[in-house]
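COURSE: Structural Biology Practicum
ASSIGNMENT: Worksheet 4, Part C
STUDENT ID: 0417
INSTRUCTIONS: Below are two proteins. For each, the amino acid sequence is given first, followed by its structure token string. Answer the questions at the end about the second protein only.

PROTEIN I
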Amino acid sequence: MFKFGFGQDIGIDLGTATVIAYVKGKGVVLREPSVVAVDSNTKEVLAVGEEARRMLGRTPGNIVATRPLREGVISDYTVTEKMLKYFINKINGKTIFAPRAMICIPSRVTEVEKKAVIDAATQAGARKVFLIEEPIAAAIGAGIDIAKPCGNMVVDIGGGTTDIAVISLGGSVESTSLKVAGDKFDEYIIKYIKKKHNVMIGERTAEDLKINIGCVYPKIQDTEMEIRGRDLTTGLPKNITVFSSEMLEAMIEPAMMIVDAVHSVLEKTPPELAADISSRGIYMTGGGCLVDGLDKLLQEKTGINVMIANDAVSCVALGTGKALDNLDAIDR
């Protein structure tokens, strides 16, 4: 257990796939899947995070392992609150003082969705809650000086949403948020394997395929991976070998949706800022940007240099953490 004194400030990247927490002066102290296992009879939370993720698709009837956030927003308020409470307690240890929390949200969420995040975090034990837009936090985490009057483009691909923003003078000038990200790639892989091999696989297997052999740009050498699923003809378990060239077929459609969204944001960007982006390049952050070849695809389609930020997965949490330094000014 971590123990901290008064004035504990926590930055939380409340992701669809992963919750990452940053504590002022400590760095990233928690990185767990946003999965909760609940007993459907008693509504009691049985497991949270990694332990609950291992239960996905493998639980008896009365235990439901769910992801309470879908496409970047809260889909199950009660479970999200319990999950946040668990994580805040885990970070805060035995101190009696409630922490202040800075939480990341996608750039295009509604007022109702913002209120849901604030309420859930307050109910979970935060003394005061502040919100920060994901692309801005990602830009700060990637080490970009967002206060300068020049254009920077950030493409943050998480589990549920892709946030694209052109940032200048500390705010986003042009932005969009689309519900196509890591989870959507998994969905397309499941559909493809079902159609091509007549085999049903689960979310975890799809994710393993995406991480190990997934690509959205032709590879020099075709790689393969053996997986097991359920044969839809016989209903029995079946082993199949999948190739990275098949993954390219499965994943290219959602990848092109992201590329098109970047294109449309660039089209709406003022010419001066567009010129800045063209010379400075596009920064990619978030776990979803690590899909093999996504940077090459974006670079080829836009003609602009594309860079993947260092520690892309933690960028948003790190940016949220750095934003904590200005909390006192915001609070006032």
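PROTEIN II
(use this one for the questions)
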Amino acid sequence: MAALKELLQKIQYTLVQGNADIEITEVVYDSRKITKGCLFICIEGANFDGHTFAAEAAEKGAAVLVVSKEVKVPEDIVVIRVEDTRYAMAFISAAYFGNPAEKLKVIGITGTKGKTTTTYLIKSILEHAGYKVGLIGTIETIIGDKHIHAENTTPESFLLQKYFKEMVDVGLDAVVMEVSSQGLKLHRTQGFIFDIGIFTNLEPDHIGPNEHADFEEYKMCKGLLFKQCLTGIVNMDDSHCKDVVEGHTCKLETFGLAKEADLRAEQLELVTKGGHIGVSFLLKGLLEFPVEVATPGRFSVYNALAAIAVCRHFNVDEERIKTALLAAKVKGRIEMVKVSDDFTLMIDYAHNAMSLESLLSTLKEYHPHRLVCLFGCGGNRSKLRRYEMGEVSGRLADLTIITSDNPRFEEPQAIMDDIKEGIAKTSGAYVEICDRKEAIAYAIDNGEPGDIIVLAGKGHEDYQEIKGVKYPMDERDLIRDILKERGRTDIGR
């Protein structure tokens, strides 16, 4: 039970009807979970409006309705009117779970790219230093030994506060989380203050129906994080950085390659050894020591800088930072799987033209003998993505292996034909092998010394969706099975 007045303490509201001096049994925002004596929050989504369930909520015994528009319910139901029910839900949820964020160090990361990788890097470094760290992001939520599949990059405020409470209950010290522009726009991260907010970079993305009206709104939403944190750590090399932090209310620190950055990387060098590629640099500014990261390219340097900048606030020593950066692996994000000392094989989530071009351009800097790109495209999605990805791979890769991804309700061959239309605009060589396991086997069997082979598009996903059914399919398992079939048992090193 919870006292209604205590849940409403930090929000402005109007008591439309009923008596606010009551206790409620629980807080609910999903109409399917309404129970007797609960407080039901009527939130509006892209395709639904909780206010349409007000009468049903009353019939099911809800004691309180939180609304932003007029509803007609019996007079014995308490009706609380607020300007924005999503905003109110964040504060109500925080109070309902006992304001758990106040008992944790909360680190939030926003940006177009790098959020997922940077959260895992920070978690890795802090755990090497003895901290107990939770994680909330695109792939999963991690609470102690529990891993929960993620539905949204940033969960609804109620679920977020529930996760915070669980983290406190199992004795965690800190949580590092991805903060999406949608999460900020929909007030999912209200009701608490971030100890540290990070900005990685900004590119036009997520513009369209049910997301952001235009790039200006997208940029503005990203900037909201720096009005909700105590310390902001931002990539000053990004051309949109000044706009994003405009009107900030936090203390600011910067990282980047620019000499003015508080924490900067100098003398970048590409590293290639034994089937692995990475990058090394000298850290300068607020901390100074050499760093090596076990993932390639300039964006890996930025991710590492952001992670180091955060861990400086936790007084992590140099050796622990260096060890953790080398050891950290993120499932499906430039994830190297050792299959040979002669060539490099990696799994990456790149599933649109922008991310694929960024990845392949980075890998070309290592001057591989051949750059081989294996990918497919999702069914029941934009055909334009297929043409664009085909053209990018045809232009940048020495060999493209076209295969199946999640065909959904389309025929895999039709999707592959669309990809070929994009490749046809280039002089790139390609083969097509519809079965993804067979395609990966072809890539491995035909790997040549000095090759870099990328399995793109699936990343952390462990399924293949065909005609409404998700079948188990993890590329790591496929690789393991392929090597076993060839008498190899030394994989996954």
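ANSWER KEY EXCERPT:
Q1: Residues 2-96 form a domain with the Udp-n-acetylmuramoylalanyl-d-glutamate--2,6- Diaminopimelate Ligase; Chain: A, domain 1 fold (CATH 3.40.1390.10).
Q2: The chain has three domains: 2-96, 100-327, 335-485.
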